[in-house]
Amino acid sequence: MLLFFGGSLYMSLRIRKRTENADGYMTGGGKIGFGISAASMTATWIWASSMYASATSGYTYGISGPIHYGLWGALMILLIYPFGKRIRKVAPKAHTIAEVMFARHGRSSQLMLAGSNVLGSVISLTSNLIAGGALISMLSPFTFSQGILAIGAGVLLYTLWSGFRASVLTDFAQVCAMLGAVIVIIPVVFFAAGGPSLFETGASNLTPQQGDFFSSDAFFNQGAPYIAAVLAYAIGNQTIAQRLFAVREDLIKKTFITATFGYGATIIGIGMLGVIALYAGITPEGGDVNNLIPQMAATYLSPLLLCVFFVMIIGSLSSTADADLTALSSIVMADIYGQNIAGKKKANPRTMVLIGRITMVVAMVAGLYFAGSQFNILDLLVFVGALWGALVFPVIASFYWNRVTNLAFSVSVVVALAAFLPVRFEWVDLTGPIGIVSDVLSTIGIGVVLGLMAFGFFGKRVALIVGVVATLASAPFAIGFLHTYPVLSGSLIAYAVSTIVCVTLTLPSKKEDFDFDLIKQRTGDFDSVDTDELNTELAELTEAEQPLNVENESN
Fold first, then answer.
1. How far is residue 437 from each of residues 258, 297, 430, measured CA to CA in Å?
2. What pLDDT is attached to residue 537?
3. How far, in Å, CA of 330 to CA of 27, rounded?
4. The pLDDT of residue 409
5. Which runs of consecutive H residues, i.e. helices, occur in 91-246?
6. At 32, is the secondary structure helix, strand, or coil?
7. How far is residue 531's CA from residue 517's CA, in Å, rounded to a whole number?
8. How far, in Å, CA of 423 to CA of 443, rounded?
9. Residue (of 152, 150, 173, 154) closest to 15 by Cα position
10. pTM of the entire predicted model
11. N or C: which end of the chain has fewer CB within 10 A?
């Protein structure tokens, strides 16, 4: 731990500046190159919680569990680039999606998106601390509480001074360490547990659904909710948006396609540890599935490989924990202070950086407090993804449809959340007429999800066809059935209700069409004057002086 966090701190100190730039602290100035950006996106999404959750999925649902988890998670990264290109086009110098929503609609839509990201990042930070605490308590004399405290302090130390710049630089080293460890550890555990013969000797430990590669149980409880959640994470998550605004605009597609393959291969591979444990008949220590990965490592790895494994897990949780800290700091800096307290023109960059650092400290303290409750990581991830589902259609529509109003955005999100919560937590009995209404909305949600995915890659006409066909084709099977899966139903209902309400309130609107060029004017750097405007003035001045300087062009 001293070597890992000490090395990360050393890297961070090497790039620190005497006076930190506020825009660099939030997005690195929007000029990060391909290698660093792809590595950072991969490392950020290969977090300890995703490793633990993939293994939990493998242990719970069998061999198809990690595939459902990793494949749809990879699809989430892939879906970023078509929408991301549009977002960067209308807001090339923004820092957060919420900041763009403020420029597009106003304060209420901005605070909704910012608030959901504060909640999401705190939950993400908490779940990473839980994963690290479970690892340390399993493999060392330290307790769970001591473990989360040590990890929290280590991540905070190297991220605090340089913010996002420190996060992306350390991500590069961390992803190299993680991928190297995965390549070595998974085969070693597999052969130590029995190798290929394990699939024969351990088959009796599986239920018929766990042994079925096309398990319906795995699809409806794991795969389908994640298909519904991938758009929500792609559009609503500030840790992703921050990297979208940081990478050079011409490198967006290349960066996120590379990260798609890196994430998918790694997470599916790690999930196989859960499948191996299932076949080997291993019971998670204390009945807590969060202990499954460190338990497998302690059982089958030598001391040297345990150190390699430790670096893999600590690297994965650190890369995401520092991303959560920088995401939270950018939200408070840009959305709360920069837009709502000081105002864009009066915001002091030095004050912004100070606020960002204070935010990181407060967020880490909150994460440590909540980590003591040791929530189930898989449940946390599904909940946050579904929560963001209420925002997906209003956010996407706001970047493409110039008639969407602040009222349509705000009301659709609130109504969608009101419909989502009772279904997700089973506060109402989903039988009889209520169950039918739930299934109808969920069926519409299927069409919305698939239609939006098609829209990103193929445009509006294909999206409408896909959405309508998907809704009609799934209706005979879904109605009367989907309400038995409240996690999936809640996510789909959030999509459906937000879409229906947003479209219903937008169509009759008589407000003038929005000019998307206004977003460029209302978002941008906090630290300096508009460099594009300055360059234009210099160019005009140079042209005006040319007749006087014909004889001495070098001047």
1. 41, 47, 9
2. 39
3. 8
4. 92
5. 97-104, 107-139, 144-160, 164-192, 198-201, 208-211, 216-218, 224-236, 238-246
6. strand
7. 17
8. 14
9. 173
10. 0.82
11. C
